[in-house]
Amino acid sequence: MKLMMLSANEAKKLRPGLLTGLLLVMGIILVQLVQLGLNMALTQDAYYLSKLSGEKRQLATEVQIIQEQVDSLASPQNLADAANRLGMVANPSSVLIDIVNDKIYGVPRPAQAQSSAASANLVANSAMVSVSEFNPATVASAQVETSVAESALNGSQVTLVAGQIPASPTR
Amino acid sequence: MGNHASVNRRLSVFALLLVLLVSALGIRLVDYQIVRADEIRAESLESRKETRTLTALRGDIRDANGEVLARTVFRYDINAAPKNVGPVIRYMDGNRTEISVEAAADELARVLGLAPEEVLSKLAGESAYSNLAKKVDATVYNQIRELDIPWIYWDRFAYRLYPNGAVAGNVLGFVSSDGTPLAGLERQYNTCLAGVDGQETYERSAEGVRIPTSNVVTQPTQDGGNLNLSIDSNLQFFAQQVLAKSVSDLNAEWGSAIVVEVKTGRILAAAEAPTVDPNDPGASKAQDRGSRIMQFAFEPGSIMKSLSTAMVLDSKSATIYETVNSPDRLQLKYGESIKDSFNHEPFQLTLAGVLRYSSNTGMYSFGMRVDEKTRFNYLQKFGFGKTTDLNFEGESSGILRPYDEWQYADRYTHLFGQGVAVTPLQMAFAYQALANEGVRLSPSLVDSCVTPSGEVIYSPERKSTRVISEEAANMNLQLMEKVVEFGGVGKLAGIPGYRVAGKTGTAEIREGAGYGERFAISFFGVAPVEDPRFVVGVTIYKPVGETNSVKATGPFRSIMQQALKHYRVPPSTSKPRDDIPSNRFGKTGE
């Protein structure tokens, strides 16, 4: 290493330009700021993602709760009990309509109240968490709202001719 | 000059030191950043890293209509850390409220359904773990979370739920509390249902807080496949209801009902009473937790006669018009005798008459026309003496001794269902062969196993065995129809509008060296005769006070009628043949 004596002018020439230095510093500051911004955005997104994951878990839990309620309400055990509470009667005789050949198979028979009343549930299900709450009283109150539509239907009831489907006016 | 030299020397020393320092730092930097970089990184990560198992979900079991019979849900163990227990601080509308430990315990007790004192006792002490409640459902878990008590935490785990309870419970089987399959299809098809747990790692800060986005899945989870059954849960439930009532009314040991789709061999219902609720297997007796339909073999009695007449027809040993003399007791030449179930004058019975009156003596006379080896071969082809292709765990093969080991009564008692033991499954598929133009299909309970990505990894192999000719099978079905058309007990199995064929059975049950006083009563049948769709077989074991099969025909009729209605089978449009002689004089008609 060697030390040299220079004049003031020569030293001034060798001194780095202020603008260059300023640009360099500004550049560094800018890069740092961009990096900071990106980091902040990334962190923000990470927390947002974490929040969404939490919400997803919570929603999955809600779905599970509702699914288990639906399972219980839809279980045959619940339906059998509900049918029994409502005094529903099963009609074992089947009557089928063959649309292609305009035929009715089987003879319609009224269900027998005594012999075919829906049996209450006899099959265990310890997973039932919800049961249907309706009973004859709640159903009766629901019928009030549908009575108008029902009376309109009754007025246009079709009487079946044995073995034949009545010709539809729409075809 | 001297000053300059001194300055230069000092500067040189300073520069040298600087170089040495920078070199040392550089070497250190290279060591840290390059040479030992991996080691240090791993060491650093290890100190922050936590590993967590990602639970793979066990697949669903679904019925033929896609209804879920078994699914995996989550349950929660609610725990406390007694060493951290203290007052709970809550902010309501910006106001700080302090909840005492007693009040918090009271809230917990209300949600968990426990006594406050019990909760308080579990919160006492200095341990880091105290379990407050096990296996609580998601509703309770949510309520606990909402309490926001900092010293309460929970463990989530997968739990097997059977939404329809005991519907098909005997077939589904069940799993242990840790998820190990213990019985039934759960165990048999574990490779389909079980998933493969995954693993992830994540990083924690010095404060122990999980660092977001730091998680890395090192082993992805593979959820289990869904098992699709042939069981129709609606029909299954109906059959179980019918059986439960019959078994209870008759004070019987158990009852079983099986519904088979004739053309495919698919089992639509395999109902039993009593049975098991897989949600709570401990509530059932050990002997009720399996499937007797597959696992219990018994001497079937007269339901076997339909198969014996089929052998006679197929081997052309008799026509449907030939008659045999059928007294109520037949003395055999080597000192034994065969007796019918009721006293009567000697009948002249055709094959249809033998079925209609369920005559043991008549069946003997016809059956002995077929040699022993041929009969044994027929019995084997009907599927007796070996397990089926169902491969249900613990399935019984029944008992069918080789014909060359038959002695004395063994030579003929199988013609009316003694000396041979069969499972309800085997008998149902022997009837399936009769209904399917003489071809026995392999039974199936499972339609497919499908992975979460939709790939079918299992579907049953359908095997078929020609047992008897199509002509003999169809004719035999029409002989069996006479049982329902005219039979004293069989008539009760009739379904208005449908042609039904079947056979009653009142089988004695061996006790020690002889037979006991209680019976296994059965009715196995087919409908509609002109185009068979279903085989239904009902057996009620050891009903109290029943000496005939009247009480088995009712359940048969109910279940068959429900199957026909459920699957929209049109009523029969043809009538039974009226030229088949079946009365006690060997003539047609009543």
UniProtKB/TrEMBL annotation, chain A:
This is Unannotated protein. It comes from freshwater metagenome.
Automatic annotation (TrEMBL), chain B:
The keyword Membrane applies. Its main location: membrane. PROSITE patterns: AA_TRANSFER_CLASS_1. Residues 568-590 are annotated as: Disordered. GO terms for biological process: cell wall organization. Gene3D superfamilies: 3.30.450.330, DD-peptidase/beta-lactamase superfamily, Penicillin-binding protein 2a (Domain 2). Residues 575-590 have a biased composition (Basic and acidic residues). One of its GO terms (cellular component) is plasma membrane. It is found in: Membrane. Keywords: Membrane. GO terms for molecular function: catalytic activity; penicillin binding; pyridoxal phosphate binding. Residues 255-561 form the Penicillin-binding protein transpeptidase domain. Residues 55-213 form the Penicillin-binding protein dimerisation domain. This is Unannotated protein.
